[in-house]
Amino acid sequence: MNFLISQNDTTAIAIQVHFSDDMICLTLSDGREIKTPIEFYPRLAAASPAELRDFRFIGGGRGIHWEKLNEDLSVDSIIHGRRASNYPVYS
Known about the structure:
Elements: E1 14-19, E2 23-28, E3 33-37, H1 42-45, H2 49-53, E4 56-58, E5 63-66, E6 71-74, H3 75-79
Antiparallel strand pairs: 1-2, 2-3, 4-5, 5-6
């Protein structure tokens, strides 16, 4: 059995963010492209295209901040598909 083990820093750094109709899309510094449903983040899902584009990277690309939307997301949480704490959960 083979295992891929990296000795390098595995911190994900975002260098680009864009949105499709239903996804938040990140490009990471290591070349990966990550897509997660925008519905996981209700404030982003309700935002206008102009509001979505009005972000800045924080923590050296480890997070994304939308001032007008009062929203901060960590790149790690997006990569792992963690939903916003105010995301409605239906059973």
